[in-house]
Automatic annotation (TrEMBL):
Organism lineage: Bacteria, Pseudomonadati, Pseudomonadota, Gammaproteobacteria, Pseudomonadales
Pfam families: Methyltransf_31 (PF13847), WHD_Rv2258c (PF21320)
Keyword Membrane found: no
Domain Methyltransferase residue range list: 182-292
Designated name of the protein: Class I SAM-dependent methyltransferase
Keywords for this protein: Methyltransferase, Transferase
Amino acid sequence: MTRNAETIACADHEADPALAETFSERMVEVLNSGALALMLSVGHRTGLLDAMADMPPATSAGIAEKAGLDERYVREWLGAMTVGGIVDHDPVTEDYYLPPEHAASLCRKSPTDNIAVFAQYIPLLGSVEDDIVHCFRHGGGVPYERFDRFHDVMAEDSGQSVVPALETHILPLVPGLTERLEQGIDVLDVGCGRGRALNRLARLFPRSRFTGYDISEDAIRYAAQEARAISNDNVTFKVFDAGNLERNGNPGAYELITTFDAVHDQKDPLTVLRGIRKSLADEGVYLAQDIKGSSHHHSDRDHPIGPLLYTISCMHCMTVSLAQDGEGLGAMWGREKAVEYFKAAGFRNIDVHELDHDFQNYWYVCRP
């Protein structure tokens, strides 16, 4: 992209032509990356990326046949993947090939590194752009029901970041917790979504009793169906507003309470945390996963996916809270404010952990 940078002026000073050109080139990269994110989402949802990961070089017709898709659409998608440097193309044979080094970050066979799962957030958020623009002008928020596929994507996200690490990394954050679960304790997951993590725990620890709360009827229905499918008879899922936990919960009933990325988008996060504290036994533990970040914007400049997380916060987490006339805390409330809220809810001992494989989250271990 070219421009007559020497004529650019901004406010009371002229722009540096070289810096202006560099920034312009960066903005073009942003446009191309956004477009590729859309195509990666399509490739993930249609199974094209998985099909190509298992194939030798092939024509668009061969790839379409393997994936069971329309060839014309596959061919155009392959064009985007080729010019985007994701797929290799031989102009002589007209074959396309997904190198294994690329497939390792884009396919379901690599469940803990599948970036294509996260690419789905881009079209998901784009689908509510008109609503968000309206909110910028008039205030208010966009309710959960406007996000048609949110629980689908979050379930896949959780399936990568939480479920595979439960036994090896997450439970060991609390010394002795695995042994207590093996002996049998009562566990509550607040904001359980589709129940991927809770169903996994219920299967691992048949002597313990598990309850999952979520405000979404669809998510609870899906979680319960999965529990029945894998014969988990020690887990119960209920439609329940976490904001009512302090008033209508069971005081001291649970020895372990978990939240996986579920506090910051609540209508009243502090009320939810107080409900969790009230529901926790005096010797119990509250284990919270939440987004890794600072409560100060300038401290997040070097976050590897900072722009993505702030965008998700603006276009989902913050706005769904505001749609309930809530606080609108947002995903990037940050470590400092999270600790402040945990203390205000009645937790005296708060340990903050980071996992080597997880640059996206903090893990808080809170005790009364």
